[in-house]
Backbone:
C-alpha cells in the first residue's frame, strides 16, 4: 500500500463542495450550501460562478451531447445547461423520497441518480434510498432500492457494472448493467472495515462512510472516505493500493488534467465535535480543492 502526497491547494472560498467534473481545462464543482456551481481553471485556480441553483446543486454530469445536466436537490429536478441557458431536463418530485444526490450519465444519455431516501438537511434521520433511472425519453424508474443514503455512483470502463456507495451502511455496492440499462445482481463489493484501525463501531461514531468516488483506466476505484479523512484507491478486486491523507472530510474526487493523471480532491472541513448536517445548514463548513498526481489516469469510466 502506497501513500501519495497531497498537492497544492487549487481553490477555496466555498461552503461545501461536491460532484467535481473535469472538462477541457476546467473543473466544475457544486457548492451545495452556497447554491452555486463553479468552474475552476486548473492552470490558474481562477474560480467563476457558472450557474446559480436556488434549491441547491449536488450531482452533475456531462451529457453525451456536451451539455451539463445538474441536479436541484430540494425540488427534485434536473436541469440541462447548454449554450448558456438552463432548461428543465426531468422532474422527479413524484418519485423522490429524499434529495437528488450524486449522478452519472451513460453513453446513451441515460441518467442514474441517487435518491438519498431522507432529507437530512431538514432534520430527517438517514434511511434507505434508491437509485433512479431517467430514460432518454424522460421516463423515471426505480432501478435499485434499499440503499442507505446512496452516494458515489459511477459506471465501469466497459459499461458492464454500476457502483454505488451506501454512505450510512458503510460499504460499496456493485450491480450488473443489463443491455436495457436496468440493474441486477446486487453485490456487496467493499467495506471500510479493511482499513487500518477501523472497526464497525468506529464507522458510525466517526462517520467513516464513502461519499464520492471515481474509476481509473485500470478499473481502480478512488473513494472519498469522509470522517476517515483519506482518499483511498482499490484495485479491481477491492484491495487497497494507495492512500492520500485529506486533513478534513474527504468528500469527492475526479480524474482529469492534460494526461488524466491529476486527481482533484474536494475536502470539506467541519468544526470539531459538531454534527455534519447541522454545520452545513448553519454555513459553518468550508471547502478547499486540492490535487494529487497519480500513476493511472482517466479511462472510459463514467462520469
Residues:
Amino acid at each position: 500500500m502506497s501513500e501519495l502526497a497531497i498537492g497544492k491547494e487549487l481553490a477555496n472560498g466555498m461552503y461545501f463542495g461536491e460532484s467535481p467534473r473535469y472538462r477541457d481545462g476546467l473543473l466544475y464543482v457544486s457548492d451545495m450550501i452556497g447554491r452555486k456551481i463553479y468552474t475552476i481553471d486548473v492552470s490558474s485556480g481562477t474560480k467563476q460562478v457558472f450557474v446559480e441553483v436556488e434549491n441547491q446543486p449536488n450531482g452533475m454530469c456531462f451529457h453525451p451531447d456536451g451539455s451539463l445536466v445538474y441536479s436541484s436537490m430540494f425540488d427534485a429536478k434536473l436541469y440541462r445547461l447548454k449554450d448558456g441557458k438552463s432548461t428543465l431536463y426531468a422532474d422527479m418530485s413524484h418519485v423522490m423520497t429524499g434529495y437528488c444526490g450524486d449522478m452519472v450519465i451513460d453513453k446513451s444519455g441515460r441518467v442514474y441518480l441517487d435518491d438519498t431516501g431522507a432529507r437530512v438537511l431538514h432534520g430527517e434521520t438517514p434511511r434507505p434510498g434508491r437509485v433512479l433511472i431517467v430514460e432518454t425519453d424522460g421516463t423515471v424508474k426505480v432501478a435499485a432500492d434499499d440503499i442507505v443514503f446512496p452516494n458515489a455512483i459511477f459506471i465501469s470502463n466497459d459499461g458492464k457494472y454500476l457502483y454505488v456507495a451506501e454512505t450510512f451502511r458503510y460499504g460499496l455496492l456493485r450491480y450488473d448493467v443489463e443491455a436495457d440499462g436496468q440493474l441486477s445482481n446486487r453485490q456487496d463489493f467493499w467495506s471500510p472495515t479493511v482499513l487500518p484501525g477501523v472497526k464497525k463501531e468506529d464507522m458510525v461514531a466517526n462517520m467513516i462512510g464513502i461519499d464520492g468516488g471515481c474509476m481509473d483506466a485500470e478499473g481502480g476505484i478512488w473513494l472519498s472516505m469522509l470522517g476517515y479523512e483519506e482518499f483511498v484507491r482499490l484495485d479491481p478486486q477491492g484491495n487497497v493500493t494507495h492512500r492520500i491523507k485529506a486533513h478534513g472530510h474527504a468528500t469527492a474526487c475526479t480524474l482529469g488534467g492534460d494526461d488524466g493523471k491529476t486527481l482533484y480532491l474536494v475536502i470539506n472541513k467541519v468544526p470539531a465535535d459538531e454534527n455534519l448536517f447541522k454545520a452545513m445548514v448553519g454555513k459553518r463548513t468550508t471547502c478547499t480543492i486540492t490535487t494529487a498526481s497519480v500513476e493511472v489516469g482517466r479511462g472510459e469510466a463514467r462520469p
Residues 2-293 form a domain with the Neuraminidase fold (CATH 2.120.10.30). The mean pLDDT is 95. Helices lie at 200-205, 276-281. The first strand starts at residue 2 and ends at 4.
